[in-house]
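Final report, Chapter 2: Outcomes

The project's central promise was a pipeline that accepts a single protein chain and returns its three-dimensional structure in a standardized token representation, suitable for archiving and comparison. That pipeline is now operational. To close this chapter, we reproduce one record exactly as it appears in the project archive, with the input sequence first and the structure output second.
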Amino acid sequence: MVDRTLEVSVIICAYTQERWTETVAAIRSVQQQTVPPCEIILVIDHNVELLACAQSQLPHEIIVIENSERKGLSGARNSGIAVSHGALIAFLDDDATAEPDWLERLQRCCEDPQVLGAGGVVEPLWLEQRPAWFPKEFYWVVGCTYEKPPRFPVAVRNPYGGCTCIRREVFETVGGFTDGIGRVGARPMGGEETELCIRAKQHWPQRHFLYDPHARIHHHIPAKRGKWSYFCSRCYSEGLSKATIAHVVGSKDSLASERAYTLKTLPLGVLNGCTDTLLRWDLSGILRAGAIIAGLAVTTTGYVVGTLRQSKDVVRRPVRVEATQLDPLSRVTH
């Protein structure tokens, strides 16, 4: 039985009309949840045409607002948090659809007061066939889960940002998402949820985030994200993002999971790829092994470059979100 006092606000951020069909599908998947949210907030990230489209075409119960901060996913999410009312705040990507029990499962995880937030599995929904060379160990490049899910919920450093539910208490205490970290438009940066969760764990060392393998969403992957050029661009950008996060919260916490991934997951992936080619005559296996090595090299290059230029970059520290920051009657709807 789900605790009905833990009402959930769902925030979806959108920046381009190219994904309007996917955005509408994302909203509908939230409307069809077994445990409905108390509100659905769509944040438009500095796109006047998309804002007008959303205001004119979506049902009136969907709250449509503009990003009131600097352009980017971090600012858009913070804008949504500022007008939300739920004790829990869930985030769903605008190009993903949630399974009907997604919200119920995340909400149930958060019934434990020691749980700061919870996330689930992001499954890829390739709009065209997945390239044979694309290694599953690098599914994070397309915003999806890359490891085999556990059987039961487990504690993690951070859940995936587009498939997560976090206590309002976190934002009121340690602040929102940090401006200067995360995606801005089509620029393939990331890591805003990682930095937030590390900050929360540093404040509450005895509390944790959960990963529920049964809370699932499906992430639409267009053909262009299966191209080698995007793969390299995303890897390089991830390296830059990791360098920024390490600068903000320290390398010990920010790179703990990455060390295990680099020393265990990737070597095993290379071995499996070579084995597929040598024993199963799958020529794409050696390509996947090569992609893993190249991806690691490009990501490392991005991290080194990002580390060297940290002194020149401006990262705006997050502001705590006050519980009464915005009068409910002042929310922008349509």
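Archive annotation: Residues 76 and 215 are 24 Å apart (CA to CA).
This record, like all others produced under the grant, will remain available to the consortium after the project formally closes.
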